[in-house]
Amino acid sequence: MAALDELRVALKKRIRVLRKSCMPLILANGVKSLPDEILCLIFEAGHIMTVGCTFATTVSHVSQRFREVSLRTPLLWTRISVLSSSAQNLAFISHTGGIGLDVSTGVPWTSRHRVESFFEILRPTTPRWSHLRLYRMDDWVTMELLGLAELPNLQFLHHGCKIGFVGWKLPRLSRISGFEHSFTPGSSFVPSQLTSFEMKLDTVTVDVISLYLTLRSMVNLEALSLTVRDRSKLSISDDIIPIRDPRSVHINTLQLNIRDMTCYQVVEPMYYALSYLSASSVQITLDNLPDQIPLTYGEDIAFPYGSKIHIRLSQIATSYYPWNSSGLLAELVHGCPIAETISVEAPTTGYILPRSYSEDRMNAHSLREVQFKYCDRLTEDEVEDLVAKLMLDDEGIGLQSLEILYCKGISEDFLLHLSDIPGVGQKLKWTL
Fold it and tell me: What is the superkingdom listed in this entry's lineage (predicted)?
């Protein structure tokens, strides 16, 4: 046996040496045999996976063939930045073949003079701008002063400053992402053709009614993402938010990130303002908060509401949770009867499942998939009760998939025993 073990070790070392010496030759031969069209697609994928223009300049200096193929790949040269020299930007534009340009003003501390010169050089190309990223506080004003308010093919706008659309012509704008936005009534116009709206509400004061009315004006909205931090302030008037037909507007995705010691008094009005939405997928992140921000369900409000719900909770300061008695999962199921998939990631939260099951709180006719990930306080008794109540034997009825991922309180022996129960079997999956 000792001789066999020595032989096995020697063979492994020899295989590693052969792999190390042969792999570069195999890769080199493989690249040489690739058609230019495939290499072009690989370059485009690398461009999409990275930011800036480093990938383009790097890949074009690998070899003569790589340079020739890269120069025939217009997408690689579409990122035009104020941080690059004028000569480089003009060279990049010459290789783009007339396709859309991704224009960026670089970093917030770029001088205004440099930005103005940058825009002047690019003025003839404005009909080709498809993406625009503004990082300085007065970039928007600078563009207005230079008469660059008409961008007929702009599809995506990212901004780190307050912006307004009055007087601008952006007929194809469909996506906005940024850090601040003015929701004061009458101060800005939000194009109704927007399909994606992502905003980080950090240092601004937001009027909740105006926020609601602004979002309602986006009649083609498909994806919404909002981030609320402690410095965010919601202006709450005595007027009732004019919610019409709660859960009446469908969108594909809704993401809400509540972070950095934001209290429930700040978030509750936003829950109410968003309750007119019914999303295919809802993702809520509650991180670094002074207390647990509960879910909100009642006659006039239901949040979150969607067929697929993912909730992530971490770093909650207090140990009291509003759903202690009923359980987080029970609140979701009871308040959102259309939920088909629920995923919970909660390292520090207890009582994810109810202490005692009741017909009205765990009436889960639509629920088909449940996933618990990093739920360290989840207990085996809770999981066993959940399986007994919801994982029915009838085909297609009840819970069809239960995943337990990296939950410290659950042992593999327990899960193996549970999977042996008739009606469970392959419906139960785990990784510990």
Answer: Eukaryota
- Tens digit of pLDDT for each residue in 69-114? 999 999 999 999 999 999 999 999 999 988 999 999 877 777 888 8
Does residue 22 form part of some domain?
Answer: no
Q: Give the Cα separation of 378 and 86 in Å (integer).
A: 58
Give the integer Cα–Cα distance in Å for 154 and 157: 8
Give the pLDDT confidence score for residue 280 in this predicted structure.
93
Among residues 77, 110, 142, the one where a domain terminates is 77
List, in sequence order, every residue forming a beta bridge with 206; answer none if it has no partner. Answer: 234
What is the spatial distance between Cα 365 and Cα 385, in angstroms, rounded to a whole number? Answer: 17
**β pairing state of 306-316 and 302-303:** unpaired
Q: Would you call 198 helix, strand, or coil by DSSP?
A: strand
At 146-174, the pLDDT tens digits run 999 899 999 999 887 667 667 788 889 99
Calculate the CA 119 to chain-centre distance: 31
Contact 281, 252 (CB under 8 A): yes
pTM: 0.79
Other beta carbons within 10 angstroms of residue 296's beta carbon come to 19
Distance CA 419, CA 253 (A): 33
Angle between helices 64-71 and 36-49 (to 10 degrees): 70
383 in a domain, yes or no? Answer: yes
Q: How many domains does the chain have?
A: 2
Q: Structural domain of residue 64, as residue ranges?
A: 33-77
**In this structure, which amino acid lies at residue 276?**
Y
147 is a domain residue: no
